[in-house]
Design brief:
It contains 6 helices and 11 strands. By secondary structure, the chain is of the alpha+beta class.
């Protein structure tokens, strides 16, 4: 994070956040930059003729959800469909830091690396990420991840309609207390092939029993907006290598 002062203060740009973690995610670091920047504002907010601070970011994640975060907090860090929100700890810290900044704060989105200062911030961020160092993201919950049997794309919410399906989990991510998000491939037993990438939620206890690289016949709830694995009926033998659907 770099501060650019108004011209009337006659001060040079200043690096105010230089933070790199060996283990975290891009989204968590984007939030952390804003939090650390706002905390710096609170400590230094006595500038003559300054009535507003602009937090300029190239993060689509921050830009897209900064307005929804207060609603999530009121809903116990769940979205309107009831799904738990990832990175709730940092969203909460961001809302608190903004409220305590001591000055009006506006978030502004700007495409990355399109300005001189944007390029400088990008270089600093890359250097901090490469350096790693002693900084720690204490709220980072890494979960577990292995290879998906389906290449490309991102996991989508599973269209849960109460069906029983064979899945092969490839990633598990703790979200709210007692709940995890499972990413998985669906296995079609009729043509012995894997299909698509999906995710659903389940209890931490059930997630513990759904091992990566294994196949399971599971039962889903009846809510495609908040898909949940309700029951694991049995373990199923599935291929350990990607497979193509059978031809005609």
């Amino acid at each position: 994070m770099v501060v650019r002062y108004p011209e009337h203060l006659n001060r040079d740009d200043e690096v105010i956040v230089d933070f790199g973690c060996p283990k975290s995610t891009n989204q968590r670091m984007e939030l952390t930059a804003c939090i650390e920047g706002l905390q710096w504002v609170r400590r230094n907010v006595r500038w003559h003729g300054v009535t507003c601070v602009l937090m300029v970011t190239d993060s689509q994640y921050v830009r897209g959800f900064i307005g929804l975060a207060p609603v999530w907090k009121r809903n116990g860090w769940r979205n309107r469909e009831g799904q738990p929100i990832l990175n709730d700890d940092l969203w909460d810290d961001l809302l608190k830091a903004r409220a305590k900044a001591g000055i009006r704060v506006e978030f502004v989105w700007e495409p990355g690396k399109t300005t001189e200062i944007g390029n400088r911030v990008d270089r600093l961020a890359r250097a901090a990420a490469k350096r790693g160092g002693i900084d720690r993201d204490t709220g980072y919950r890494p979960g577990a991840c292995s290879r998906s049997m389906v290449k490309g794309g991102v996991a989508l919410p599973y269209p849960a309609r109460g069906q029983v399906t064979v899945i092969r989990p490839y990633a598990k991510k703790p979200v709210l207390k007692g709940e995890e998000r499972i990413s998985f491939n669906v296995f079609d037993e009729s043509n012995r092939s894997y299909e698509s990438k999906f995710y659903a939620f389940t209890t931490s206890l059930m997630a513990f029993d759904l091992h990566r690289w294994h196949g399971y016949r599971v039962r889903f709830n009846d809510n495609p907006k908040y898909p949940q694995i309700l029951e694991c009926k049995e373990e199923v033998a599935v291929p350990t290598q990607p497979t193509a659907a059978a031809g005609p």
